[in-house]
Design a protein that fits this description.
The chain contains 2 helices and 6 strands; from the N terminus they run αββαββββ. By secondary structure, the chain is an alpha+beta fold. A hairpin with a 2-residue loop joins strand 5 (118-127) and strand 6.
Length: 142
């Protein structure tokens, strides 16, 4: 297993606090997949305005976290180092469970197709084995 801490993640993808939504990568294989985690804290800025009476992590940020994990898989490839992975599209996105403060969000993105700078990843976010969100993410490397 190849583990990455925040500093090592920052060396691969351009995101920084407060928009870096990955705390660590548990395992990855360049160009194939990455598995990461987000430890959801009540101190997250978005909880101040997103249902403050019942804090729930915004779905769009869950999808962004999945995309960042996928970007680690793609941008860790030798030919993509120093580049940026941009969103090209989001398909088949479904939200199944709420993500709340105290949750450890597991983020798994598997690259299922890649041709040149374009690719598609299958992404699953879960908490304690329960699926919170799924999506098919299209990316462009530039």
């Amino acid at each position: 297993m190849k583990r990455l801490n925040v500093k090592e993640i920052e060396a691969i993808i351009p995101h920084r606090h407060p928009f870096l939504l990955i705390d660590y990568i548990e395992d990855y294989e360049p160009g194939k997949y990455a598995i990461g985690y987000k430890c959801v804290s009540y101190r997250e800025e978005f909880f101040k305005g997103h249902f403050p009476q019942e804090p729930v992590m915004p779905g769009v940020l869950i999808v962004e976290a999945l995309a960042q994990v996928g970007a680690v898989a793609i941008l860790s490839m030798e030919e993509n180092q120093g580049k940026t992975a941009y969103f090209g599209g989001i398909q088949k996105c479904r939200f199944r469970e709420k993500v709340i403060p105290g949750d450890q969000l597991k983020l798994e993105t598997k690259i299922i197709r890649q041709k040149g700078p374009l690719g598609i990843g299958e992404a699953v976010a879960s908490v304690n084995g329960k699926i919170a969100a799924t999506a098919e993410l299209t990316f462009m490397v530039g």
